[in-house]
Design brief:
Number of strands: 4
Largest sheet: 2 strands, antiparallel
Strand content: under 5%
Radius of gyration: 23 Å
Number of helices: 16
Oligomer: single chain
Shape: globular
Distance between the termini: 41 Å
Length: 407
Amino acid sequence: MNSSTATTSAKKGAKEAGLLATVANNARQYGIVAALLVIVIVFEILTKGVLLKPNSFVSLIQQNAYVIILAIGMVMVIIATHIDLSVGSLVAFIGGVCALLMERQGMNWMLAIGLSLVVGLLVGVWQGFWVAYVGIPGFITTLAGMLIFRGLATVIVGESVPITSNDFRGIARNYLPNILGFWGPFDALTQEVGELCIAGNAWSQLSKRKRVEKVGLVAEPMNLTILKIVIISVVIAFVTYLLASSGNEDQGGIPIMLVIVALLVVAYNFILTNTVFGRHVYAVGGNRKAAILSGINTKRVDFTLFVHMGLLSAIAAICMLSRLASATAQAGMEFEMDAIASCFIGGTAVTGGIGTIPGAVVGAFVMGIINQGLSIMGVDTAVVKTIKGLVLLLAVAVDIMSKRKKS
């Protein structure tokens, strides 16, 4: 074998080793996505194609938007080694406040939403104060909050408060206006947005790789980057097809709820990964004592986290109230469990310091697809809860065992 052939073989071997190393280092992340795809395929077969019908997919988004919104805040709280058990009660309480403002006080629906968000922020300030500045653990503080706000919801709402505003109810059931018309049977705006998302993802993946190389670090192999671009592009294209062909005779395309969720995911993912506050959250979760010694104001970080959680709980409450078109004291039952489970299924570490918002979103979709798939199949609610509990237990067990192997 001549020297050029040996060099070529060595480079090829190095590339293959780099690819395998990259996949191994991100095995947890890729495994979650692979599990989601397997679950989708299994339930698509079991439901005989009903799960991924266009309107069924839109229903999946609308019914699980609250889980994703709450999981966005919950993942940040868990990364910082806290937990929030009050979010379900907050959804009921803030939803009740919003309904009373509109139906009993005759307030404009947009003003009622604004005041509801303020209430969410104030609740976040209340709970953040006890956790950050009094030193009561988040588990105890939010357990108390779960009881307090469920009780307040029962007192102020009573039986129920129906919502009569069609504009407010349209948040959950309406779509973006069809401003570009149709391309055949498909909504043109949805197709344009899908094409932009595909292009944006490709640009993001390549730009990220260039930034890594620019600072002198070892980037992932180019063939892995291309593979990721292709797979994500196929998924986006399929989702675009489902959305573009969804709806009814009056409207269709991109649901307003999807826009709300997407904006929150993008905004909070940026906050967590590209701001000083986000770096401080990871630092506090990774090693609180070291974070204090490095000059990080851990109390302010904890306080801010619960303020964000209060705001996101208010947004989830508004979305849920719009979907149900009625405020009840029982709204939001077990929402905190769905949000927490989504985070752990999505790869957030039980011990804190590790977790991502995209991972929590994937976890929320896993929970949502299990819910919807079993519902379509007519499975009893008790059995659904049992299966969800087993999925959560398995996800945490995998996380713990993977850490043992690394150590």
